[in-house]
User: Fold this.
Amino acid sequence: MTSKFEWEQTFSSITLHLPVTTVRAQDVDLFVSEFFVKVNIVKAKYLLALDVFDSLDHSHKDNQVRLTNDGFDIFLVKKQKKIWDDIFAVGTKEELKERRENSVAQLEEEKSKHREDSKNLRYELDRHTVDSQMKIDTKKRQEIRDRRQAEHDQAQREIMDEFKRKKYIPGEVEQDEEEEGELIEKPKPEEEEVVEVETDYSKSRTRDQTDSDEEKGDIFEENEVEEEEERDLPSVREAASVKLSFTERKYPNIAARERHGEEAPFPKAKDFYKESGDVADKNPVWLNDKGKEFVKNGDYHSALNAFAMAAKKDSTNLEYISHRCLCLMKTGQWIPAIEDAHLLVTAVEKKFETDDHSKDDQSLQKIFVQSMIRIATVEAWFGYFDESEAALDKALTLPGIKNEWNEEISRHRTLIKERRLSNETKSEGDALYRKGSIRDALAIYEKSAGNYNQNELIFANIAMTYLKLEEYEKCINACDSSLKLMEDFQSKACEMPYNPIRTKLFLRKAKALENLDKFEAALKQLEKAYSLDPRNSEVKKNLESVKDYLNFQKFEVEKRNADKLLREMKFPEALEAYKSCQRLLHKDRSMELVATVVNKCACFLGLDRFEDVIQETAKGLKTLKNFKNSPKFTKGDVEQKVRALELRLYLRAGGAMAKTNRLYQAKESYENALKIDPGNQMIKNDLETVLAQLSEKAN
Assistant:
């Protein structure tokens, strides 16, 4: 089924122009598989089902729907870079149906795998979050225990010090302040007496003294001291431990407003995971507080998990959803983020309609304005500037809006306008670049960057032009500028979101580094690009090429070492070195691989391992046969090198077979060697020896 549409193509993409107006991008239901495109717009009663001519890269990040003044464009990337003969597929109705069903089934299978991978990733992130929190809480509990123990020890020391300070010290003479200078000598150490200390530290009394002592005015008389010295002393007071009790808490990490009266003891560390699961799963306030801690530490993935779980437990709390939306923005998940923002706007508007007093709620106003700003930011980032400005206008319609929010909205409106002008200027440079006017395009890009230096796309295109002009250092600097801007955007989250062009930037930087012979640095950039887009064929091709180059450099060093060991007849060491050489070679380097096989065979012969020689020579000959049938094989020098390797393999095989009495096979190997080098007298002599042995065996 085909409705009215127009199309155009480039070497790497197609663009479908649909003349449908009065609809928004979110009203378009687009389905794209490898060989089938379906567009359904219910509001406009428009349906397009298209079997395309060749394969599409249905999962490419650059596939998008773009609104235009007279409709909208669907931009799709081709799987193979080439010019199509037509947009429509060629074939019978049954063939096209089977082709379409297979592509749809393949897409569903990929989606199912992606969902499973996402589920596993969420599980790993949740597990990581719990493990991290367990470690943090265990550390905090240990710190509390240590602090309590230190306080306990300090209290004990203070009590004992006070006690010792108030005791009489044996052997000293004390003056009674209430007596007129009368001095009393205390008992000797061996007759030490324990005394109790009264509130008035100037007076002391023994346990055996009666109230009549106080009536005398003097604490001791001279004769009483003598009698006291002869009296039996009481037993020394025993030391006792002092216990300090603390109120036990059931949920030590919950905010104070959530604490309860009768609480069970806090679980031991070994049972923490099991017990704390109830808190993490059932208390959204606890989850929200933990999410805020993660945000402060910059761990937005863990914070996202916490806020998502809190919102799941209490879906009526808009604060949890707003926090989740922020973390989605921070982690570059723009579609779920904008969905959360729309959800918040709808919820706040409903509250305003049903409850007039809620319009004065500052927290609801804040959620409404922040959500509209986030919607405007994402819309502008994807090029929908009209929708972006409409979102900011809607934020201003909020009754009783505070001046500070007016200023925030105005600031974002300025940012969006600047980006819009920058993109329009960039489009002029893009047109010049496509025409081949590289220098003119570069001038436009640099002028645009001078007017607005926060557009990472401008610097990405500057890097592209410098790469084309072979100015590699400037290309690297432009790539770094663009990547730095994206890192800044990611940290600010709501200023401008992350852009998926990072893969291209890493690739361009790697190409520039390759041309500067900085292959190690280029490898790091390509590995970053591959981690972002593992299915990118250009990234994979360049990554393999750089790895092969670096490994070949190591191969040449290792081979020189192995050849030296072989010349010194250190066969075991040389054999291991040649094996290391083979591990460094790419599968396409057939000539170098066979050269190591020849030398390995020489090592095996030196060790009398003839069976290994026979097996290795067979592998080498098979590799050369496949190489001669490949496009890389050409007449001339390559052919001469191949024949020289074949000759040596046949000679190695013939010698090993003769040693193991496989005379007919040895004869065949020597004959093949003579076909390559008919005038070689040494081969003729070896062949005659084998023929003589066969003759003797026959007789």
